[in-house]
Amino acid sequence: MKKGSLLFDPLRRKEVPDTPEERVRQWFIALLRDSAAVPVGLMMSEWALDYGEKRYRADIVVFDREARPIAVVECKRPEVKIDAAVIGQAMRYHIVLGVDFLFLTNGKNTYLYRRGGGTFRPVDHLPSYEEMLQCRR
Asked: Which of 9, 27, 50, 104 is deepest in the core (most CB within 10 A)?
């Protein structure tokens, strides 16, 4: 990474600093768009939310067609392990947003979860946008 280099974030519609975590975020945005057919206009990055007295920013939030959150993606730098602390962070976002899907990634390891039966269970593939919407029907 060159000092001062930038990446274009299609969700924020602007250039942002090129950091290891940002590269992971941009990779996952492209994956959601290209492989899961999530419309770019129904994703937001750096979505602000409050939990208790603290303000957080979810890396990526996917919305249904009525602008209700259905998925949260937590992105970490490649050297950051996806552990209980990362899962706890994503669960806080779920408590606030009530999403059906949690996706956790550091670009090397990606974990996908779907809510069902009162808990989140691993899924073996990235669901398409239409699959995500099926949880709301």
From this structure: 104
Closest CA to 75 of 5, 7, 4: 7
For every one of its 137 residues, what pLDDT tens digit does the chain have, with 9 covering 90 and above? Answer: 456 799 999 999 999 999 999 999 999 999 999 999 999 999 999 999 998 898 989 999 999 999 999 999 999 999 999 999 999 999 999 999 999 999 999 999 999 999 988 899 999 999 999 999 998 65
The C-alpha atoms of residue 51 and residue 7 are separated, in whole angstroms, by 29
Q: What residue spans define the domains of the chain? A: 6-134
88 three-state secondary structure: helix
Distances 71 to 14, 114, 117, 126 between C-alpha atoms, Å: 23, 9, 17, 11
Estimate to the nearest angstrom the gap between the alpha carbon of 110 and the chain centroid: 11
